[in-house]
UniProtKB/TrEMBL annotation:
This is Homoserine O-acetyltransferase. Belongs to the MetA family. SUPFAM superfamilies: Class I glutamine amidotransferase-like. It is found in: Cytoplasm.
Amino acid sequence: MPVNIPDSLPAKSLLEAENVFVMSQSRAQSQDIRPLKILILNLMPLKSVTEAHLLRVLSNSPLQVEVELMMASSHAHKHTSQEHLLAFYKTFDEVKTRYFDGLIITGAPVELMEFEAVNYWKELCEIMEWSKQHVTSTFHICWGAQAGLYYHYGIKKYELHKKMFGVFSHSVEVPTEPLLRGFDDWYYAPHSRYTEVRADEIRNTKGLVILSESPEAGVYIVVSEDRKQIFVTGHPEYDRNTLAEEYWRDVNKGMEIAVPENYYSNDNPEGEPAVNWRGHAHLLYSNWLNYYVYQLTPYKFNHEH
């Protein structure tokens, strides 16, 4: 699927160099189809890195996707230039009267804080409430998944005794689920978090279904019964070096951090990690776009009738 993004977005040239199919706005406008409109609420500090991660996995289907980027306006963005934010990001106030086919809510490095202590929590709650009527399906990632489970269902998060950090094996619990169509019985995905949600609490909550779990990393993919809400506790969108960059960042800060599990050959952090999760990451996002967004979204949004 060609991803339709602004011609000047820095991630465009990076993705083109990787042979990812990216379509310029000028080319997209010449095609007589309605693209899927996907809004990304990017809560990560290094916004351009997360943009590239997500655009990469959104690029692999025949559908045309038009991506818009949104930031939390109630937060000071210290790690991304104002020029980049002004050029490419919108605030919730600028989009809240509109409708979108899909919404992605990213993770954020705030998981050891109580949800209510996060300075943009009120704004995030407003966005999550708005999404019920204005978005066909919402895909929550890592802390975003914990935030969504807490806001919509009251599911708590719990601090782990050590960081869940590495690449772990996951089982398919519901083989007939379209989101997992084409998945192997066991597959890999990266995790990087200090907190968890618990399977027993989710199973005891009406309206939620666990689709995939890991013996080591716990609950991985949860969906609402109406499939409008997808919650993924890991980071399938991470590229080859993301865990390595996080590891060396923490080492250089003098923090105690274990080498990411099942990531480096012989657990040697001086080597280059091999990717064993990319295929399922692409499949997860293309299945979401096809079965939970494209097949369900109206051709014309409510306000266009």
